[in-house]
Each structure stands twice: as structure tokens, then as C-alpha cells.
């Protein structure tokens, strides 16, 4: 669905509906990540997130958000460490598995867990090992801020999400 808005006069702006806002935000291409941690029982937990962003270079901080309705909200509220795994363009199935609340997510994502509880997924192009700094509720999401402890970069192209679907970048 595409809607065209007529130019408005100053002061006559109308607030977008959630559907309008979702459509407009979908026009901003994002990378796709799986953010993962271990829960209080030592089991890996994770989900697909495209709200990941840099916050500060010095100190090294990143941020991301999670819907308040997520089943993993409490897990990440309690997590001291987690990893942001930036998916490669070969990992669409991994993204889809972690976007679902059903199934054995880690069965499709070979991984290992560090002594600090960092869940490192194989085949990604970048990994940010993070320590939780803070979180706060903003609207219908929880905003998480983390200190980057370590970064790993591997070769490959990123998985990109644009207008509600996965998209490949072209190298020209």
C-alpha cells in the first residue's frame, strides 16, 4: 500500500497512524542482526533485531530496542552480557528463525558460547560483544544501551531489510 500525502500548510500536519509510520520507516534500509544472550538457566536466547544502531564512539556504546510484548523482555532486562551478531546476506533463514517465537532457533544457527555468556553465531560478518549499561521504556519498546567490549569483523556482505523484505546490496 502506497499513500501519497498532499503538501501541508505549516501547522496543519496530521500525526501518522501506526501503519503510516511503519510504512515510512520501512523505506529506511537496515542491516539485520541477531542479538543473543544466555538466560538464567544458561540456555542461549536470541531474536532478530533491525533497530540496532551506534550511539557513541568514545566510550564505545550501541543501542537497540525490543517490543514490550516480547517473550524475551525479561531475559534481556536481566542479561549482563549479550552479543550483536550482524548477519551476512547468506543468513536469511537464520533471520527468519530468530524472528519467530516458535521452533528451535539455534538449530539453524551454528554457534558457541563464551565463558562470559556471549553467544557467537557462525557465518556472520560482524560481532559486537557487549555489556549491558542501561535500559528504559520508550513508547511500546524497551531501549537497551550497551558498552562494546570487543568487535570481530569477517568477510561478507550484510543481510539488508527494506520495505518489508530482504534485499541484496549490489557492489558497483
CATH class placement = Mainly Beta
* CATH superfamily label: Electron Transport, Fmn-binding Protein, Chain A
- Main β sheet profile: 7 strands, antiparallel
Q: State the strand order across the main sheet.
A: 3-2-6-9-10-5-4
User: How many alpha or pi helices?
Assistant: 3
CATH topology: Pnp Oxidase, Chain A
Characterise the protein shown here.
With 172 residues, this protein is mainly β. It has one domain: Pnp Oxidase, Chain A. It has three helices and twelve strands, in the order H-E-E-E-E-E-H-E-H-E-E-E-E-E-E. The protein has helices at residues 18-25, 73-78, 92-99, and strands at residues 30-31, 33-38, 44-49, 53-56, 61-67, 81-86, 111-113, 119-121, 126-138, 141-153, 160-162, 165-167. The strands form three sheets. A seven-stranded antiparallel sheet has the order 3-2-6-9-10-5-4. The longest helix has 8 residues, at 18-25. The protein is globular. The two termini are 30 Å apart. 27% of the residues are buried. The model has no long low-confidence stretch (mean pLDDT 90).
